[in-house]
Amino acid sequence: MKPNRTSRFRSIAETLALRNGPAAAAARLLAPLAAACLLVPGAAGASPDALLGDVFAISDVRVDEEAETAAAARETAISTAHRIAFGRLVRRLVLRTQWPRLPDPDAARIAPLVESFTIDSEKTSDVRYLAAMTFRFRRQEVRRLLRSRGIEFAETAARPILVLPILDNAGALALWERPNPWFEAWKALPPSDGLVPIFLPDGSLADIRDLGAGQAVAGDRRPVAALAARYRAVSVLAAVARFRADLRSGRRILEVSLRRFGGGETEEPQIVSLARGQDEDRDTIIARAAREVTARLEEDWKRRTLLRFASRDEIIAHMPLARLADWIAVRRTLGSVAMLRDMQLIAVSRRAAAVRLGFYGTVEQFRLALAQRGIALAGKAGSWTLTAASSRRSGSGRRQ
Questions:
Q1: Both ends of the chain: CA-CA distance in Å?
Q2: Helix count and strand count (H, E) for the chain
Q3: Can you point out the beta strands (E) in the chain?
Q4: Positive or negative torsion for Cα 144, 145, 149, 152
Q5: Predicted TM-score (pTM) of this structure
Q6: Under a CB-based contact definition with an 8 Å cutoff, are residues 361 and 307 in contact?
Q7: Rounded CA gap, 334 and 216, in Å?
Q8: How far apart are CA 12 and CA 105, in angstroms?
Q9: Which tens digits make up the pLDDT trace of 168-213?
Q10: HEC states along 67-95?
Q11: Label partner for 273 (CA 20 to 30 A): which of 115, 197, 311, 350?
């Protein structure tokens, strides 16, 4: 009798157990896990969009393995996919400076960290297996692993940032104009796999009408806000790139000025400078600059939202209610905030609720984390108010 799909996945887990001796118990956990994933109707066809905002979900994990048989290739592919997904997850959470300290476990040791995985697509031949998979990891287990190694990490996903790549060519500003190699470099970036999702405007006639490059550079808030509103973006980043000559070395320098608008985070411009390498042409250094800026955004965000388990605080906050369902919705959202340690409802009426919130880190860090989930924390010690902000998610536009 030809084995069904579930039994084949059980054999994969059992094989991992046999191959890894002391890790056998961990690997055996993979068998019922895989079976459960496969028995859920429609699970394998779930859209990756449904996982947006889920920090512990890793999608589009692609594997391509060959072996003496298709079954052996499949086993190897499943094992490889576990390692790829785990690697992507920990690099998402951990600062680059600590990447060398990250563990590199085999699939059997990764299995207990996995809550579920699905096969979104697959192709097989007699000796080859190709697939795209999605993994969902267990937050507490991953936390325990990283903390046991003294590795600092963040879990708070930022709201998507609308990026405006503006090229300053000797004073001639280009945003929507073509050619704009700086805009093209951002379009060519791979989809974001970190905690800071970014996306680009479409460059439609409405975009061109509402905002000019000069207005964005000057920080004209009204047209910037109009563009942001159309894309339902809470935060906008104007990234202005220009070349200049370094008088000391004679080398060409690509200087990128970054300025944020909206989301309560308007900042003074930051400068990122890159020296042009001897073998780099203009397009190559521009592409490198786009990668460097996105990496800088990720690192800065992680530093701001690091989980500081040794630092604990709590507040009592009041929340006005239009209906009881408002509190139920906010409670569900609060439960997804990484910095939240515990919460206790103290009092509730038809018009208001009072809740005690325990959290890791400082009040400002907690406030920032809440804002990413659409909840505003206002006030001061002894008089805090929670307000559920309107749900504003980025709309159309090119996601990176």
A1: 47
A2: 13, 15
A3: 57-66, 114-124, 128-137, 161-169, 172-174, 198-200, 235-245, 252-261, 270-275, 312-320, 340-348, 352-360, 375-380, 383-388, 398-399
A4: negative
A5: 0.80
A6: yes
A7: 35
A8: 17
A9: 998 999 999 999 999 999 999 998 899 999 999 999 999 999 999 9
A10: CCCHHHHHHHHHHHHHHHHHHHHHHHHEC
A11: 197
Domains and CATH numbers, the chain: 5-148 (no CATH), 161-305 (3.40.50), 312-388 (3.30.70)
- pLDDT higher than 80, residue 24: no
What residues does 64 pair with on adjacent strands? 130
Cα separation of 197 and 50, whole Å? 15
| Mean pLDDT within 62-90 | 96
Please compute the mean of the pLDDT values over residues 333-350 and round it to a whole number: 93
The token pair at 84 is 């790829």
In this structure, are strands 198-200 and 161-169 parallel, antiparallel, or unpaired? parallel
Instruction: Please tell me the predicted confidence (pLDDT) of residue 366.
Output: 96
What tokens were used for 118? 């699905």
Computed from CA positions of residues 49, 51, 55, 61, in that sequence, does the dihedral angle turn out positive or negative? negative
Cα dihedral across residues 172, 175, 179, 180: positive or negative: positive
Cα 5 to Cα 110: distance, rounded to the nearest angstrom:
22
User: 91 with 102: CB under 8 angstroms?
Assistant: yes
Place of tokens 């998610």: 393
* One-letter amino acid for residue 367 of the chain: R
Considering the chain, what is the average pLDDT of its residues?
A: 84
Which amino acid belongs to residue 43? A
Look at the alpha carbons of 42, 43, 46, 52 in this order and tell me if their dihedral is positive or negative. Answer: positive
Q: How crowded is the C-beta side of 167, counted as CA atoms within 13 Å?
A: 20
